[in-house]
């Protein structure tokens, strides 16, 4: 999954209408709505502010007054096709007086976002998770070494009746870590909640 490194914009003109594609890195719907409000303030006289969002479990698309399915969904399709995440794409349109028709609008919004992404700097988005678990005191040092060997960073250790460890690692590596620690401790690990964060 790819994500933009910074906010980026690119403008095209189609039959006298201006289409300004704004690509923003975001990690939630809330952050996306803040970014959308700022874009509306930046171009207050625009006719439409059509957008699509992909951020973790948050996704969505909005046509903002364009005929249904001609703007938000095409923008979202481009983001999905390019395998993006943690991204908001907004296309600001200034109507130029020439109607494009439904097919023309789909092509215009898709083209605006595709061209913007062709110029934007994208990086691999690694989804990381924090995992908490407890183990027996006698096993703690071996568990720590195994975590480090699996690429997990130990963020915190709380000592109580049993040591409670919080580790972070790439989400894709979590199943292997769980399997390794369960094998190492003969199933004596108590797994607690998992928290997801995006990078």
Describe the 3D structure.
The protein folds into two domains: 2-124, 2-Layer Sandwich (Ribosomal Protein S5, domain 2); 127-198, 2-Layer Sandwich (Alpha-Beta Plaits), CATH 3.30.70.240. The strands form three sheets. Strands 2-3-6-4-5 form a five-stranded antiparallel sheet, sandwiched between helices. The chain has a four-stranded antiparallel sheet with strand order 9-10-8-11, covered by helices on one side. The chain is of the alpha+beta class. The chain has helices spanning 29-42, 72-81, 101-119, 140-149, 174-184; strands at 2-4, 8-14, 17-25, 48-55, 58-62, 87-94, 122-124, 127-134, 153-158, 164-170, 190-198. The model has no long low-confidence stretch (mean pLDDT 90). Helix content is 32%, strand content 37%. It has five helices and eleven strands; from the N terminus they run βββαββαβαββαββαβ. The chain starts with a strand and ends with a strand. A hairpin with a 2-residue loop joins strand 2 and strand 3. The longest helix has 19 residues, at 101-119.
How does the major sheet shape up?
A: 5 strands, antiparallel
Q: What separation lies between the terminal Cα atoms?
A: 11 Å
Strand arrangement within the widest β-sheet reads: 2-3-6-4-5
Number of helices: 5
Structural category: alpha+beta
Number of domains: 2
Q: How many beta-strand elements? A: 11
CATH superfamily of the largest domain: Impact, N-terminal domain
Question: What is the N-to-C order of secondary-structure elements (H for helix, E for strand)?
Answer: EEEHEEHEHEEHEEHE
Radius of gyration, Cα only, in angstroms? 23 Å
Q: Which descriptor suits the 3D outline?
A: elongated
> Whole-number average pLDDT?
90
